[in-house]
Amino acid sequence: MIVDPSSDDRLDRAFMALADPVRRRIIARLSRGPATVNELADPFEISKQAVSKHIQVLEHAGLVTRTRDAQRRPVHLDPAALEALTAWIDRYRLIHEQQFRSLDALLAESTTAEASAEASDPATGATGRRTEEERS
Amino acid sequence: MTNPVTITAPEGLPFIEIEREFDAPVAAVFNAHRDPALVTQWLGPNGYEMNIERWDFVSHGAYRYIHTDTDGADWAFNGTFHSVRENELAIQTFEFEGYPDVVAIESMTFEDLGGGRMKLHIHSVYPTVEARDGMVASGMERGVTEGYARLDGLVAA
Fold it and tell me: Which chain B residue has its CA at the smallest distance from A85's CA?
């Protein structure tokens, strides 16, 4: 396995960023939509400067981004970054979940195909048809 | 709405147990395991191309297939279908050719839940706890690499 030490640092930063309860609450708030530093600071008994620092940590970890629209500079959550973390944790499970979802899709599709195949040509099952398509 | 997958890998025991319900009849799920043209459409990780060299889903039949990942790397697997009973059971051996001679025995049962639904049970037994842990970890190892690559993309953006 090749692990780029710089990406190892990034993963460390992401996990460290999420180790703090205030930063987790910020992430939870941002999961409902973007917010400004003022809006994020509102529910906390800490200064706006302290909240800004927490946001910087999250930003540095790649978990949130800040757009530069005029004065507001709202903070956005990057859900794909969180997904990357969970993918890192449990790939074995994800592979099985993915493949069973593919099987779900296939079963849903073949049920429909079977119904129409039976209606038009009872001699040809959905499976036989698919095999021909695959080979062509 | 997706049915959840239950994966159990008990500490210190060389098993992996997987359970998953399907909103489809037993016969359809069994057929998706038997017909190689259907198997290529769902078996293995997303984005991998699957080529089946052999697939005789009958008692004393055999299989071999190759997954090719997006970088063009091949991952080959083979085994024997020891017992296959329609809409009921399949017992097969499983070997990842990257770790030759480490052969798992997988028992799959196809349970009819009625109302056009079924439950798939997979019980895999590995020769040692280390081999079992290695199998789970190899999925994770690839995941680590892929996860890093995605994280790289995210932080670079």
Answer: B147
Query: Of A88, A6, A89, which Cα lies nearest the Cα of B156?
Result: A6
Overall domain count for chain B: 1
CATH classification at residue B118: 3.30.530.20
B5 touches chain A (CB under 8 A): yes
Residue B102: CB atoms within 10 Å: 17
Interface contacts (A, B; CB < 8 Å): 129
Chain CA centroid to CA A2, Å: 24
Q: Strand B103-114 to strand A64-66: parallel, antiparallel, or no bridges (unpaired)? A: unpaired
- Chain A nearest CA to B78, separation (Å): 18
Q: What is the pTM of this model?
A: 0.59
Strand segments, DSSP code E, in chain A are: 64-66, 75-77
State the smallest CA–CA distance between residue B29 and chain A in angstroms: 7
Structure confidence by residue, pLDDT tens digits, B90-113 = 999 999 898 899 999 999 999 999
Q: Are residues A103 and B42, on separate chains, in Cβ contact within 8 Å?
A: yes
Token code pair at residue A88: 């890192």
The closest alpha carbon to A60, from B58, B87, B154, B72, belongs to B154
For residue B58, what are its two tokens? 């009958």
The answer to whether the Cα torsion of A52, A85, B141, B74 is positive or negative is negative
Domain boundaries A5-88, corresponding CATH code: 1.10.10.10
Q: How confident is the model at residue A83 (pLDDT cuts 50, 70, 90)?
A: low
